[in-house]
Amino acid sequence: MKTNDIKTVTIIGAGAMGHGIAEVALIAGYKVFLRDIKQEFVDRGVSMLDKSLKKLVEKGKVTSDHYDKIQNELLKPCVDMKEAVQETDLVIEAIPEIPELKKQTFKELDQYAPSHTILATNTSSIKITDIASVTNRPQQVLGLHFFNPVVIMKLVEVIRGEKTSDETMDTAFNFCLKISKIPVRVEKDVPGFVVNRINAPAHVLRGCILDEGIALPEEVDALIRKEGMPMGPYELLDYVGIDTHYHILSYYAETIHPDFKPYQAIEKMMKDGNLGQKTGKGFYDWSKGKPKIDPAKATDKVDPMDITAVQINEATKLIEMGACTAEDIDKAMLYGTGAKVGPMTIAKDHDPKELTSRLERLSKAFNKEIFKPTQMIREGTYK
Q1: How many domains would you assign to the chain?
Q2: Spans in the chain with pLDDT lower than 50
Q3: Same-domain pairing of 324 and 181
Q4: Domain span at residue 246?
Q5: Domain check: are 176 and 34 in the same one?
Q6: pTM over 0.85
Q7: Which of 28, 49, 137, 363 has the most crowded CB, counting CB atoms within 10 A?
């Protein structure tokens, strides 16, 4: 199937990601079925979608005529799975990050969707191949990983499973262009894909900083904000959810390396039920709204280049594995995180010997094998 053959899209899951993906597809003119397991979930998703669309109409980014067309013709909310997929060309699943739940959903999708339909998952970490294995069409299954908030964030990671066909990859890549996104191809089914994989060792390093008592969350966040980022890393984890962060690190510990095991600070927060913004407390107290980070508390005990170095190191692992190119890594980090410069561009300004010694020092200091420099860094072939 070619991209121009896609007329109808189904989104499974009407939560924050699901209704956001539905919205960008509707704006692009596709007929969209938005399905969830309960009518109340569907109604909530439609309400949030409508609220966002009205803002875009006010700003002149969506015409009143197109808004009316979405309401009267294009948007099809539903609960019944068969109704949701029986005439669709592309399915994008956006349900919770629970492997067995996703597999059960894909079994149903495979049963009810037409034989030509492409089945995509919005998973942020689970292997595409594992999800595809429960279907009779693994060549038509891939990852389409959008970033939150979907209407604003431009990046989509287009991820190949072990059996995904070239045609499926090309069709999905071009679909992303049609909905005004910036797609990046991930040619190997690696845990975490690009953005989350590159950020993973940085999370481990920041965990070490807390566990070793080197600096406090606010001290690090103040430092990173001074570097130009809109949010500090611990503030961001509170926003995402400590439990989500915990489960992702646990998955990486199982699938990539034991060094990714959740650190002590995060283990304690899970035990105490302090899961971030949604519970009112995480690294910060959210009971009175967004925490205020004091710039004067920026630590001088942490070198931001250490964090960048472990990201560069992980990026070179992806290149060595053939998962993606250096150019696509930088593109993904720019459009998926808001970074001003990509890690591989930064790497070109740093001497391989300096990067190698920095990474060896971090590996030894924190006893983390994942910080050891790759062959690409040792040999300077990234330049």
Answers
A1: 2
A2: none
A3: no
A4: 194-383
A5: yes
A6: yes
A7: 49
Residue 382: per-residue pLDDT: 86
- Residue where a domain stops, chosen among 186, 204, 222: 186
Residues 160 and 182 in one domain: yes
| Spatial distance between the Cα atoms of 120 and 145, rounded to a whole number of angstroms | 9
User: Structure tokens of 68?
Assistant: 């009316």
Q: Are residues 150 and 294 in the same domain?
A: no
What does the pLDDT read at residue 131?
Answer: 96
Q: What integer pLDDT is reported at residue 104 of this predicted model?
A: 97
Pairing of strands 75-78, 31-35: parallel
Rounded to an integer, what distance in angstroms lies between the CA atom of residue 191 and that of residue 194? 9
As a three-state string, the secondary structure of the chain is: CCHHHCCEEEEECCCHHHHHHHHHHHHCCCEEEEECCCHHHHHHHHHHHHHHHHHHHHCCCCCHHHHHHHHHHHEEEECCHHHHHCCCCEEEECCCCCHHHHHHHHHHHHHHCCCCCEEEECCCCCCHHHHHCCCCCHHHEEEEEECCCCCCCCEEEEEECCCCCHHHHHHHHHHHHHCCCEEEEECCCCCCCCHHHHHHHHHHHHHHHHHCCCCCHHHHHHHHHHCCCCCCHHHHHHHHCHHHHHHHHHHHHHHCCHHHCCCHHHHHHHHHCCCEHHHCECCCECCCCCCCCCHHHCCCCCCHHHHHHHHHHHHHHHHHHCCCCHHHHHHHHHHHHCCCCCHHHHHHCCCHHHHHHHHHHHHHHHCCHHHCCCHHHHHCCCC
Phi, psi of 83 (to 5 degrees): -60, -40
**The CATH number of the domain where 199 resides is what?**
1.10.1040.50
Q: Answer yes or no: do 115 and 220 share one domain.
A: no
Closest C-alpha to 368, from 253, 214, 242: 253
Residue type, 37: I
Asked if 290 and 169 count as a contact pair (C-beta separation under 8 A), the reply is no
Q: Which CATH number does the domain housing residue 139 bear?
A: 3.40.50.720
Q: What is the pLDDT of residues 47-68, one digit of tens each?
A: 999 999 999 999 999 999 999 9
What is the end-to-end Cα distance of the chain in Å, rounded?
39
Q: Are residues 126 and 218 in the same domain?
A: no
User: Are 13 and 36 contacting, i.e. CB atoms less than 8 angstroms apart?
Assistant: yes
Residues 156 and 247 in one domain: no
What is the set of active-site residues? 124, 145, 157, 196
